[in-house]
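Predict the 3D structure for this chain.
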Amino acid sequence: MKIFLTVLIISLSITNFYAQEIPNSIIKSEVFKDEYKHSSIVLVEDDGNDGVFIVRSYAGGLFSSGAGYYFEHYDSNLKLIKEYEYEMKRSDIEKYGSILGVIMNGDQVSLIDFVYNTKDKAFVCSALTSSINEFKFNKKELFRIASEDVMKSQWFGDNQFDGDSGTNFIVNEDKTAFAITIDIKDKNTETHKVFLFDNKLNKNIEHNFKRDIKDKKFVYENIDVSKDGKNLYLLGKVFTEEKKKKKEGGKYQYELTRISNEGQATQVFDTDEHFSGSLKTIVFQDKLTCIGFYSDRKDYRFKGISYFELDPITLAIRKSKYNPFTEQFMIDKYGKNKDKELKNLSFRGILITQQNEIVFNAEEYYMTSHYHMTPNGGGGYWTYVYHYDDIVSAKMANDGSIIWARNINKRQSTGGDDSYISYTSTIKGNDTYFFINTGEKVKKLSNDRIQFGQTSTKRSNLNVIRITPDGNFSFQEILDDKANEVPFMVSDGALSKNSVYFIGRKGKKKQLLKVTL
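Done. Predicted structure below.
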């Protein structure tokens, strides 16, 4: 009896430690039906009166063609005030088009369109703009590029496609400016056409980025836009002949280029004896940082987090650090501190706290394949399973050191639709939050650890996980599956102030969810 009570007390203490009250409020819209089954939130903006303006993209499935956007205005209780459907239609001369992104300026909303014009043999980028009060869209051409200059992407069936071909679209932190990059065809020189517009659709920068190296030797990492909308920062991973001779570490260098109206300037930096397969750039306050995982063994194995800080104007390197994962992180992952490198980590996002500390998020992602023999022995077929496992999160101090790093054990997988698994993350104050769907019970692991799982990709309970400024985490179920008419797609959450918006779906039935922290 004494042994039983001891075990019970330990079990209860673990449960009470992790499952704690996390303040939140929830509002649901009415359940509604769309003509099209698949849709996702692409924009959320407050209307200034406690209401919200939401843009959703939709697309037909196997038996229903069509694509477009739903524009919806809701009040503070998610009661629908006004709605409008914009259906994408192409003329005979406009082919292979796509919407790159959505931008707002006051009550003006713009869809940034990129299509191939067969008559002019050119790629044309346009803004389709309307007031959210009237929904009458006017078209304005932003720029065009001759067809023969553009590196074709896979949807044109061109085998000259490389990893950074096509277009990239990014909006700055304050949503006051957006950038578009297009890979230009040139086998001997890495070339991108770069544009920067403000949210009023004024062009601030048009620039030809060139690097005198073969296209396949330059890997486009990402581009970021300064808060004031006047500078672009383009990061590339470059395989030079000089770095090929390195005895230790990755045989490449990183090159960060600042693009402004005055032209471009580039800073080169190396990861020394380490490997860093990929870096992400983020500019905020008076800092420009590049963050990623690093290894001492090879690319795509991970020992810790690399951090580079540069001056956003001169690009001078202020700091460079290699932070191994903390002892707490390794205990989270393995139950004890192990000298082991991780693999299969996929970058999921960067968040900034009120103290201007960086929270770097990732997920353990990988794919497995399975071969199935047909019953008659006449062959077989392959199926693929996509795994979304542990959440990795680390907070970086202003000097680039790790404040905390946590591994949240999670086991989720899908054969196709990943909308209901994975997670959405946000910050309120200095607390970090993750929204995930889980199964009925949280599994207890060794050494006071827990593991979140799933019942199915379309039937799960909604949980919120909180990591406090000192690195401690707790969780709480905020919606039980049995109380929901539809399951909510946690990987497609959209943020606005202290609220996160999700859309739920079951067949054609839909529902919006607002969670306020």
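Helices lie at 2-18, 327-334.
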